[in-house]
Design a protein that fits this description.
Strand order of the largest sheet: 6-7-8
Radius of gyration: 35 Å
Number of strands: 9
Helix content: 55-70%
Mean pLDDT: 80
Shape: elongated
Low-confidence stretches: 1-14, 24-46, 60-66, 75-79, 175-206, 303-316, 411-422
Structural class: mainly alpha
Length: 726
């Protein structure tokens, strides 16, 4: 019987697993081993393992015991899969499974894994063979997704075996005395006689049983109640019912993530949070740890920091600016918390943009204020002077994107430095002669015709010059007779459109130009694709911080800086709360067009403004929602905007629409199905599209490819911790 053969449906088999351990322990020691879900595993004689290992080491010189030694060693040697790579994979599986158990058992397992890694990395081949079997078999058992009770038993057995093996290896190398080891070397905690280990009785007022009972009655998952610490349960039970009820409606993962966050708050911060009014407490408790600390300071400490009106900033009347924002509809909490300079700047932006912001939530208002306040003065001045539509579009981008867009837009406003109204006639006639127009044409056409024609593209003029002189002159008369505004629009068209339209009759040219020209905002180059350098830098930083690749201290520092600039810089906090917002749900995408799928191309698909929030809060590094971390998380390459995502989604539907069939509606709600494709614009990027039976696309993310990043819940928290946002 081995670890590998444990099945989830047979608890009796777990006990047989102890046979491997019994090989190393005297019968008198194993009888008091307690194998249940209690996090503290107790042994009546913690020095027994050390003495047994010592006997084994001393017996190596005895020929009479050689047979027993070989028999014992054969139990420890792995006949296969003992390579460092395989063992590291198995240890990663064990570490991942340990996160599902209690904190004491998890800490002990981490200690055992550290010991095992040291043996695998630095020990002899014999040492590695000795630990390979329990490592691989424990990993195999955990891969079967055992119940929590069985998982605890498997980990307890693994930890005892690793403790014993470490002692044996040290004794065989002469690194430890043969005297009994101190008690704490065999067990991480000295085994109090009580079966439960709350470590400290938490005072009668914070009764743990009462706290856990309250959370259970509110509706918290059983798995949450088993796994959260006593201190977390007691703290959470002090929060208001509305907040706890919201949490209990969500997933168990979110419940546990919230518990870890609340448990990790400094005690004084938690005490202040618990005393806040319910609405403030609910709003603040959903923020990240650092944001909670910052918000609690504002809410509870000297509230009379009564905006000490320190000479209002010469750039504008602060009171008037705040009054304007209040009238437009900004939240009172926003008006209290934003700086004077942010208020003055925002008040200079157009009403349409500010009205949009005021219809959103207070978090977004404040995030926008911080972004605008952080812009360099010359950048803000350029933004404030833009036409309303450009200002609204650009102000919604990230700080860096605002700077880049303004560079494109502002150098262009001196394009027509009065080029002498009619143009240079001589230069125009010279150009037509070089292109090949007949001499009689160049002589006979009017000056205005020559100037106008010379402004058209060379391809079109070359075609005209290849014909006869009569056609050249007829073309010149037609172009010369066009109204000036029509000709100006024609001359501004792309070459292919201009060539096609210029060959039509005068009236057809006028009609076509009317259709074509409402779109020439002409070429403000709409950032075609995300910056690949930024995507590569972010992906590399993630690998460095998570230890997926070796790095020097300097490289780690550089990676941390990249994360600080690009990870959770504009968080869409608690984005899932907006999923029932009727304004967002009724704002349908794509704008101005309809998309269809199915073999017959007759099934309409769409997404809405909430889906766009979800696409960003779950799958872009900049807007990642730290309140919605999942077991698996994946980001588009850093720098990917919602405009990019919407464009990708349109191209997916246009390219693969005939391969997409809407799922059937389910008995308890809309059916749902995932489709996986290569991104048409970059075949190396793999994407997943999730569609409901009503045609709504509610899920769209990259699953792999260049600069696409993926990581687990624990890895996400490690990344956040590295930049102080855990």
């Amino acid at each position: 019987m081995s670890i590998n053969s444990i099945k989830n449906d047979n608890a009796a088999q777990v006990n047989e697993l102890m046979k491997q351990l019994e090989t190393f322990q005297p019968k008198t020691d194993t009888k008091n081993v307690k194998l249940d879900s209690n996090p503290m595993l107790q042994m009546s004689d913690p020095g027994a393992a050390t003495r047994l290992a010592g006997q084994f080491a001393r017996s190596r010189s005895s020929l009479g015991s050689s047979f027993r030694q070989k028999e014992l060693a054969s139990l420890l040697v792995s006949n296969a899969q003992s390579s460092p790579a395989q063992l590291n994979r198995s240890m990663a599986q064990i570490a991942s499974a340990a996160t599902q158990t209690d904190s004491v058992r998890q800490a002990r397992t981490e200690k055992s894994l550290a010991t095992a890694k040291d043996i695998v990395g630095n020990g002899t081949v014999e040492d590695r063979n000795m630990v390979s079997r329990p490592i691989n078999q424990t990993s195999d058992a955990l891969a079967n997704n055992p119940t929590l009770d069985k998982l605890n038993k498997v980990l307890d057995t693994f930890n005892q075996i690793i403790d014993l093996m470490k002692t044996m290896i040290n004794l065989l190398k002469g690194d430890a005395s043969t005297q009994p080891a101190p008690k704490d070397s065999a067990q991480p905690t000295p085994a109090p006689s009580q079966p439960t280990t709350p470590s400290q009785a938490p005072s009668q007022s914070n009764d743990i049983a009462v706290a856990r009972e309250r959370l259970t009655q509110i509706g918290f998952a059983g798995s949450t109640m088993r796994q959260i610490t006593d201190s977390a349960a007691v703290k959470m039970a002090k929060l208001n019912d509305g907040l706890l009820g919201e949490l209990a409606v969500g997933s168990a993962e979110n419940e546990r993530a919230f518990a870890r966050k609340i448990d990790g708050l400094p005690q004084d911060t938690f005490d202040k949070l618990a005393k806040l009014p319910a609405t403030d407490q609910t709003r603040i408790a959903k923020l990240s740890s650092q944001q909670i600390v910052d918000e609690v300071k504002k809410q509870s400490t000297p509230v009379p920091i009564p905006t000490p009106t320190p000479t209002p900033t010469p750039g504008g009347d602060v009171a008037a600016a705040r009054e304007r924002l209040t009238q437009i509809g900004f939240a009172g909490s926003t008006m209290r918390q934003i700086t004077d300079s942010a208020a003055v700047r925002m008040a200079k932006l157009n009403d349409g943009l500010l009205g949009e912001l005021a219809r959103g939530n207070a978090d977004n208002e404040r995030a926008f204020a911080r972004k605008i306040d952080g812009l360099a003065q010359d950048t803000f001045d350029k933004l404030a002077k833009l036409p309303t539509t450009d200002q609204t579009r650009i102000a919604k981008l990230s700080s860096q994107q605002i700077i880049e867009e303004l560079k494109k837009i502002t150098p262009a406003p001196t394009p027509t430095p009065t080029p002498t109204p009619g143009g240079d006639v001589t230069v125009a006639r010279e150009k037509l002669t070089k292109i090949g127009f007949a001499g009689s044409t160049v002589r006979d056409i009017t000056d205005s015709a020559a100037v106008k024609i010379s402004k058209l593209n060379d391809g079109l003029l070359g075609e005209i010059a290849a014909g006869n002189a009569d056609n050249e002159k007829a073309f010149a008369r037609k172009i010369d007779g066009l109204p000036q505004d029509v000709f100006d629009k024609l001359a501004g068209l792309p070459a292919t459109d201009q060539t096609r339209i210029a060959k039509l009759t005068s009236q057809q040219i006028i009609d076509e130009v009317k259709k074509t020209t409402p779109t020439p905002t002409p070429t403000p180059t709409p950032t075609p694709t995300p910056n690949p350098n930024l995507g590569a830098a972010f992906s590399n930083a993630v690998d460095v911080i998570l230890g997926r690749k070796p790095a020097t201290d300097a490289e780690k520092a550089a990676a941390t800086e990249v994360l600080k600039k690009n990870f959770v810089t504009d968080e869409f906090n608690n984005a899932r709360e907006k999923r029932k917002d009727p304004v967002l749900l009724n704002d349908i995408f794509p704008k101005g067009k309809e998309l269809f799928v199915g073999a017959s191309g007759d099934k309409k698909v769409f997404w809405n403004a909430y889906d766009n929030v979800h696409f960003q809060s779950r799958h872009t590094s900049e807007h990642f929602d730290t309140a919605d971390i999942k077991a698996k998380n994946g980001f588009w390459p850093a720098g990917t905007t919602i405009q990019d995502i919407n464009r990708y989604l349109e191209s997916i539907v246009n390219t693969y629409g005939s391969q997409i069939e809407l799922p059937k509606a389910g008995s308890t709600g809309p059916g749902f199905k995932y489709f996986n494709f290569d991104l048409p614009e970059n075949k190396d990027i793999k994407v997943s599209v999730g569609i409901q039976s009503d045609g709504r696309i509610t899920s769209f993310f990259a699953t792999g490819g260049p600069n696409v990043t993926n990581f687990s819940d624990a890895e996400a928290r490690k990344l956040l911790a590295s930049i102080g946002k855990a």
